[in-house]
Amino acid sequence: MNEIILLKLGEVVLKGLNRRSFEDRLNANIRRRLQHYGSFRVYSKQSTIYVEPQSGDCDLEGAYGACRQVFGIVAATRARACPKDKDAVFHCARSYLDQALRSARTFKVETKRADKHFPMNSMEISQYVGGLLHDAYPHLKVDVHKPELCVHVEIREKAAYVHGPSQPGAGGLPIGMGGTAVSLLSGGIDSPVSSYMIAKRGVQLELVHFFSPPYTSPQALEKVEKLARELTPWCGRMKLHIVPFTEIQEAIRRDCPEDHFTLIMRRFMMRLAEAVARRTGAKALVTGESLGQVASQTMDALAVSDQVCTLPVLRPVIGMDKTEIIAISRRIGTFDTSVLPYEDCCTVFTPRHPKTHPHLDEVLAYEQALDTEGLMERAMAGIERRTISMES
Ligand code: ATP
Ligand code: MG
User: Each residue of 62-81: pLDDT tens digit?
Assistant: First the structure.
């Protein structure tokens, strides 16, 4: 009989009356994610999702890795199915977990019996299978409290399943359950992490990137696209809105005091991101700002940039140190791309002494010199949209 994948639902199980829609969404997300790995049947029963290969050429290893990146799954394991018979279960455990049984020093068998018609209860099955395994691997000692290896047996409706320890899944909530947000994606380390963190809470992302040719190069744009693609195993397919930003930056440089360049530029970014949010039905903005990291990320500066928005601005890394952000970025696989040395529009025209404690009335007065509406209109009209998927 086939090997299958078992997935454990996380917070989805706490959702009470909404549980059905959460599960449906999660199963749909898993099905979409598994398209590249062959044909699978995906269905849920009793807080477990079953992923069953439908043909011999399915890439189970690939599918297993992919499932562990789907938000809403807290744990995953591969399991072998066998007939619902006590001796079949023993033989299955022996052949399937042979290596683990050889290398462990202590073990126990834990049985869950969903099929209450099965003639033995859970304890009896565990004792029977455990006894035979003990005979077959005499070096093993039983430890019911902290065994090195727990052999899991599940007696379900159609078959019995045997598996070893499970591995952690991505956690979080299924993408799509939390609405849509616009995430400002630069080429740096922080914004891929902040995007990942909000997507993890079930949010579909629209990505916005500001670029300023010729001050920023085509390679810088490629890098951002690559980062977006590296996020898709977690965040799913996304739209990347590429906003031309050169005219705005040149106008600011020409007409505003140097120490306010970055701040005023950031206010344009927030205005434009909010305009994209309105177009796409997104309900929040996401940035990778961390308190005090740079001049534009002091509380005063953040207040001045937020003043142009009405939507909530989510800043999931606001209280994190750079080292903590880097650890996540390594884990999710964006770090190596983030550190490629291409310039971002934030790094062109940077003031020598940026204002760290700006006053809103001063900023508003400086912006009087700019044709904000015209600049916004032209930037919005110049947006290029690319669909980012794992294959793109
Ligand atoms: P990151 O490491 O993500 O680049 P950072 O520490 O360099 O962040 P800033 O450059 O000040 O910080 O940018 C703060 C946030 O503003 C970024 O995390 C990102 O959300 C947004 N941002 C900055 N530059 C761009 C850009 N060119 N396009 C889109 N968003 C941007
Ligand atoms: Mg940056």
Answer: 999 999 999 999 999 999 99
